[in-house]
Amino acid sequence: MSALHLLRDVPIRRKLTLITVLACGLALLIAGLALVAYERMVFRSSMVSELSTTAAMIADNSSAALTFSDPASARQTLRSLSANPHVVGAAIYDLKGAVFAKYQRSGLPGPFTPPAAQRRNLEVFTSDHLKLFYGIVLDGERVGTVYIESDLAEMRARVQRYFVIMGLVMALASLAALVLATALQTSISGPLSHLAEVMRGVTAEKNYALRAVKRGDDELGALMDGFNAMLSQIQAQDSALQEAHAKLEKRVEARTAELSNEVLERRHAQAELERTHRQLMDASRQAGMAEIATNVLHNVGNVLNSVNVSAILVADLAQKSKAAGLGRVVALMRANEHDLGAFVSTDPRGRHLIGHLDNLAQHLSGEQAEIVKEIDSLRTNIAHIKDIVTMQQSYAKVAGVSEIVGAVELVEDSLRMSADALARHQVAVVRDYGGAPLLNCDKHKVLQILVNLVRNAKNACEESRSPDRCVKLHVSSTTDRVKIAVIDNGTGIAQENMTRIFNHGFTTRATGHGFGLHSGALAARELGGSLVAASDGLGHGATFTLELPLHVVDSPEVARG
Amino acid sequence: MLWGTLLLLAMATALAGPADPKDYEVKAAFLYNFTKFVEWPPHTFKNQEEPVVVGVLGAPQCATALEQLVKDRKVNGRAIVVRRIDTAEDAKSAQLLFVGSSEEEHFARLLPSLAGAPVLTVGESQAFKELGGAINFVVDDSKVRFEINALAAERVGVKISAQLLKLARPPPSRGS
After folding, report:
1. Cα separation, A270 vs A281, whole angstroms
2. Per DSSP, which regions of A479-525 are E strands?
3. Do residues B113 and B91 lie in contact, with contact meaning Cβ atoms separated by under 8 Å?
4. What is the predicted pLDDT for the residue at B6?
5. Which letter, b or e, does each residue of A445-478 get, where b requires 16 or more Cβ atoms within 10 Å of its Cβ?
6. For residue A558, is pLDDT > 50?
7. Partners of A403 in the β-ladder
């Protein structure tokens, strides 16, 4: 089992050779062992028969010596055994079993002691000796016994020789088997390695077009055929798979292209949308700007009316001035230059002159006062115009810069911009400011939102036709938010429109463009705040609340911390 | 000189001294055993049952011992018969003839009639040996041994086995 296990990973080429050589070797070994065993057996029996012959001879030759009790002669007879170097010792017993003569091989270490005599012929193999008893018979009568003890060195040597020969034969045979197996194993291992090679090629290169070359019609040939058939099948499946894959890839490509087109279109649309939005924002902003400009121009126009009135008044005063009468007085006085005192005291005209001058002085003084008053009015109005223009200029700057600004100031600015419109439509303004919170934001955007809200409120009030129109402005703050509410008691918002009022393009007014609230809400979100509307319904007014982050001034504690 | 005297003395004792009764038992056994290592010419026996005859000339103790010994024994399937020899005819009928130490002259007289007969002669004296006996007992170091004159046996057609020849004491070298 373990040998098989060891063989498992050995290449077939070597396995075949090994099996052949092993089988050959084993067969030879068994045959050799059997042969040696047989040979040993034969040798033993031949040894017994040889030694028996020798014993018989000794018996024959020693019968006379025994008969005539001549041990010397018997010893001499036994000495002939020295010709056989394997005989260790020998003895002749008389009929009573006493040792009559004995022999021992020269060079034995100790004296040879024969065993007790046996009455019958007997041979005994011990581990290293053959012991043989042979009866001495003379004329049919037993006269004694011969004992011979032989060592087994010869047999050993012979067996050894056999083993050596067997080893040599095995080595030669194994070598021959090895040569033969090496030569013949290619008929099996060759196709197998070829098959393995092809298989490796197929696996490594994924080349299913490779084919094993068949060399014979044996099982290996069948294996090759099967392998090739399998490869064909795989090749067909592979190409089908690849085709399907290619198709799929094409489809995926097409789909990807479609999708990317769609994405592109969508991006275009989005860009378009953004552009439109920006345009709308711009429009809204421009609308706001226009609103502001209208207000400004309206205000300026109003003031200019006063300026015009004052200018006409001054011009009238200048035209109707009594300054010309002064000239006539001066000419009368120059004519009576020589006697001016008399003229004044005597002449009737002269007497009236002082009164006349007094009148003139009074008149001119009144005129001056009138003119000064009008000029003052003019200056005031012009200053007003300048203020309006300055404010307009301050809001007309490029937007987008954040600055810290008071919420109340912004509300006031928005009211100022709409002041005339509010006054014109008799809309009362109620201010409810809780504190003066600060904002850190783009004030133009906030103002734009507020102006929009105030205008919407004014419009709502205007449409409601109620007698006490009112817009309430409410400013409050929490820990981090500022709330600016524009509350009107105007037309209100229908419930179904509540969700739509911040949609762009939605308006309830014929002249509205629908961007105001939408852009306002967007701007509020951009500023980090929100714009929400609330209304109890039509006729109940509306509340728009702009919520923005509060600018927190670092407290001393925080600064110290 | 001295050496020669001692040798002569020893020989005299061996040859002339009264034979030990125990020696006769041994010699009887030897005689019996000789029959096992000897081959007579094929025509000696008429059939397979004909006994082997061992003749004893003199030495009655030996004959008695031998008779005791061979009573129930056979050699090559033949019974053994002990016969006390007196005449030449008796001597010729035996296959083995033992000559006692005092019977050399008697043997010498019988000898001519034995010429050519397959009779293996066994003796126990120098005189017997000189008469041309085939096997001669000697007592060596109080042990019974024998010498073989192989030519004498061959002359009458009796074959002595090599084993027996091997056991025989080599004849003393000439001049000793």
Report:
1. 16
2. 481-488
3. yes
4. 45
5. bbbbbbbbbbbbbbbbbbebeeeebbbbbbbbbe
6. no
7. A441
CATH superfamily of B18-167: Response regulator (3.40.50.2300)
**Is the complex ipTM higher than 0.90?**
no
**Which pair of structure tokens corresponds to residue A267?**
């991006």
Whether domain A2-179 has CATH 3.30.70.1170: the reply is no
Mutate to test the interface with B, among A68, A75, A79, A143 (most CBs of B within 10 A): A68
Altogether, the residues listed in chain B come to a count of 176
Q: What digits encode the pLDDT tens for the residues B47-104?
A: 888 999 999 998 889 999 999 999 888 888 899 999 999 888 888 889 999 999 888 9
Q: Which residue is listed with tokens 């006349």?
A: A356
Q: Which residues pair with A431 in a beta bridge?
A: A473
Element (H, E) at A549: strand A542-549
The pTM assigned to this predicted structure is 0.48
Closest in A64, A76, A139 to B164, CB measured: A64
In 10 A of CB A87, how many CB atoms? 21
pLDDT tier, B11 (very low <50, low <70, confident <90, very high otherwise): very low
- Closest-CA residue of B relative to A62 is B163
Whether A73 sits inside 8 A of B75 (CB atoms) is no
Q: Write b or e for each residue in A392-426: b if 16 or more Cβ atoms lie within 10 A of its Cβ, otherwise e.
A: beebeeeeeeeeebbbbebbbbbbebbbbbbeeee
Q: Are B133 and B123 in contact (CB under 8 A)?
A: yes
The answer to whether the Cβ–Cβ distance between A68 and B33 falls below 8 Å is: yes
Element (H or E) spanning A254, and its range? Answer: helix A219-319
A68 touches chain B (CB under 8 A): yes
Give helix A323-335 / helix A348-395 axis angle, nearest 10°. Answer: 150
Cα A512 from Cα A91, distance rounded (Å):
157
User: Can you read off the two tokens belonging to residue B164?
Assistant: 């027996």
CATH 3.40.640.10 fits A401-560, yes or no: no
